[in-house]
Request: fold
Amino acid sequence: MKTFSAGILLLAVTCMAHAQSAAAGFDPATKVFRLDGGNVTYVFGVNTRGELQQLYWGGRLGATDAFPPAAPLPEWASFDSSYNNTPEEYAGWGSGLFAEPALKVSFADGNRDLELHYQSHISAEDGFDVLLKDISREVYVTLRYSIDPESGILARSATIENREPQPVTVEQAAAAAWALPPAHYTLSYLTGRWAGEWTLNQEAIHGGARVIESRRGSTGHQANPWFAIAAGDPDDSSEETGEVWFGALAWSGSWRITVEQDQLDQVRVTGGFNPFDFGYVLHPNEKLDTPVFYGGYSAHGLGGASRLLHRYELLHVLPRTAATATQPMPKPRPVIYNSWEATEMNVTEAGQMALAEKAAALGVDRFVMDDGWFGQRKTDHAGLGDWYVNQDKFPHGLKPLIDKVHALGMDFGLWVEPEMVNPDSDLYRKHPDWVLNFPGRPRMEQRNQLVLNLARADVRDYVLGFLDKLLTENDIAFLKWDYNRNWSEPGWDQLPAAEQKRVYVEYTRNLYGILAELRRRHPNLEIESCSGGGGRVDLGILRYTDEVWPSDNTDPFDRLTQQDGFTYAYTPQIMMAWVTDSPHWLNQRSTTLVYRMLSSMQGSLGIGANIAKWSDEEAATAKRLIAAYHQVQPTIVQGELYRLISPRDGSEFSATQTVRQDKSQSVVFAFIHSTQEGRLFPRLKLKGLDPAAEYTLSPIEGKARAYTPATATGAWWMNHGLDMDLNFRGDFQAAAFRLDRK
Reply:
């Protein structure tokens, strides 16, 4: 067991660079735990009742700063007991607790009271494992804490264990609870709908609870498991200044985050499994692991919070595809071409080869064939579940097409939807019991399909088996893994009635297991989490997938707002952004190819248009901009993102800037929605550059004002700024520039 005093902690900290160090200490005299990482300190302790109590979460404290023993907060009134006022790290529902509990259980004898007290702890990598136990029953909870040395982001989770002689039913289980002291706060969170995902909501936190959740069996388009809380009222919030606490829940099933202001104006955030329709029976000696709930702190506004989270995702969450000791980041995503808009399900060997030739000529890195290549798949009414190559469309299998794609200098990807089945399929006719269902009740179809019950071992083995066979027999570098409906009838009649709600956990666990095993067997495989858009984007699925599909809405103007919201929670590296046809299918809006290209170049670029109909001029424009994108892509997707002008502000303008980690390069994008009353584009005062270094400005698209110097210091670009050319006006215009350090 690691223990040390404040003096020893000072020695540990001074031996390492302050912003790059992590320290975890426990003072046995005061029973206070302290975690330091980056510019963050997190402190909790064992109070006089034996509960684990949060003491501090914020900017990094001095190494000699010490905390007294934790003490429960006093009773405010007989209606508001000390148990409700004290911010516990992981509160069981019992002892008169009316605030949101972290854990609620029912014992076999009907007792539902749970009071968790500290038992012991052990040191773990950059943190602790802390064991709690009920005051009399044999229910144990291990809380896991780990702080990142660079960012100060904490990873927290819990393992619940039943050592009772009888089963215990877990009715509610959080991964973690976070607490903030009384103050005025603004909550930010992301909501949406299909084709309208990633809306950033900001509101003052008031008394009561704000619940953000999905009951859909997956993450959901309607809300995302991310939050940020800024000190101050909404009018006071700033993109680049002020304190912000933020968090993201790593779970791809039904989830819930509750943000609660109590009667003393303290704020608590509790997140984990959604307790709606939840009941996980733990038999004697069984355990339940919660998801991980990540939390971080920034003193530099929402922009600083998102930059911390982006880098943490790149270094510690995403699969380490092609990462090395000298290049720890996953490689930037290949520029892809996807065949959907050109052919939909009418794929043929000859047609796909012709598209591949045109894609290669543009400089594309990866060719992806979409839906329609398998079973009797001619429309979305049939074929899902029958994962064999359609011999009418591909009489010699996929190999001739894959060989052609490779000969053109691209790798090959394929669309799949493994968790779904059409009733009109050989699989469903053979195994109608394999879908989520309540026996004797209607089976609701959405998009003419049903959801396979991946919680079942036989279904899990079937899905893993056919995917492994497909990848073994074909040189496939990438799977676009789709998921095009939510759950209904979440029954699992293989289990006893009292245990059927385990489906919510076991389905997602088996999904993760399949993805992990595929990657183990095929180590060069890359996977996209696609769910009709942002329906399954979270830090759980991102441990196994390299990129996500943010929205089916690829309109370039709509995407400016969606991409703005998306990047508060997720790195641009994973944000697939396609250039599709104009007028756009969703809203019939017409835009230039340059505008569409630059909108998409802010993320990981893809081409989804019917390039068979492009003119020579359009093909030349796309080729030029793809080449320019390749030169600056690492800066765009792995650099520090600054939102210079937000498209959410109601302005006719928007702009972003990214700066390479070593400050050697920066890329600026500027967009006009519709110039009103002849206004000029606002001067862009850039951010994040080295003020003493000199940077050369080069246009990717568009022009700067005539007096703009070709080379100037970072101080000049940040304090004077960049002015657009006077002719940068009109509807749906776009410009982009790069700055390179001399």
About this structure: The chain has a mean pLDDT of 95. The two ends are 51 Å apart (CA to CA). DSSP finds 13 helices and 36 strands in the chain.
